[in-house]
Amino acid sequence: MSDAKYYVMDSDYSDEGMMLGGMPDLPNEKKDDWMYGQAFVQEPKTPIIVDIREGEEDANCLSYYCHPPIASKEFIDALVECGVDNLVNYDVVLKSRTDPRYLIEGYKAFNIIGLVKAAGPETEFATESRDGDASIQKLQGNTSAIKGLYMFRLAESWDTIVVHEKVKNHLESKNFIGLDFEELDGAFIL
Question: Are 146 and 152 spatial neighbours (Cβ–Cβ below 8 Å)?
């Protein structure tokens, strides 16, 4: 897998994608976070209710949301089909803030088990931070640190989700709307 390419995967709202609120607090906020790349100490109650932002009810539902980390069941199934095996999923219901009768089911919150220090020595950081919240001007990937994962969170910037090219290609073949990929080498990360 050393010659494999990796990509930063993000949500693309340019197709008039529905905007969502954040995730509700986890039961053990001191030890658990969706960004930590590790199993939760205490599981959240399901279904997890995620608010649809006011006035967004008629917008297109995206298949994948980076923030909050949720995706359609079909999207999660596609990840599993191409070998992603480090996700823990929770049922989600999207709910309108203004009309509580307006609900959308069929979504999953996903916790990625895998946090990888994948920034190589030539990475150009835009901030002093190197762990968790770094801004990166130009990332140089260290693929030897990835150790066969098809999907993981970047340890230098926890909210950054990285996927193997096999995953990228499979997801693109499914024509999911609202996806954006940037090659890991050379990526600009805020």
Answer: yes
**Would you say residue 36 lies in a domain?**
yes
Q: Considering the entire predicted model, what is its pTM? A: 0.93
What does the block give as tokens for 139?
């990332």
Residue 1 lies in a domain: no
Q: Worst-scoring range by mean pLDDT, 15-19, 57-61, 146-150?
A: 15-19
What total number of domains does the chain contain?
Answer: 1
189: in domain? no
Give the CA count within 13 Å in the CB-facing half-sphere of 61: 20
Segments forming the whole domain that contains residue 71: 6-183
pLDDT in tens, 141-152: 998 899 899 999
Write the pLDDT tens digit of every residue in 177-187: 889 999 999 99
DSSP code, position 154: E
Taking the C-alpha atoms of residue 85 and residue 185, their distance in angstroms, rounded to an integer, is: 24
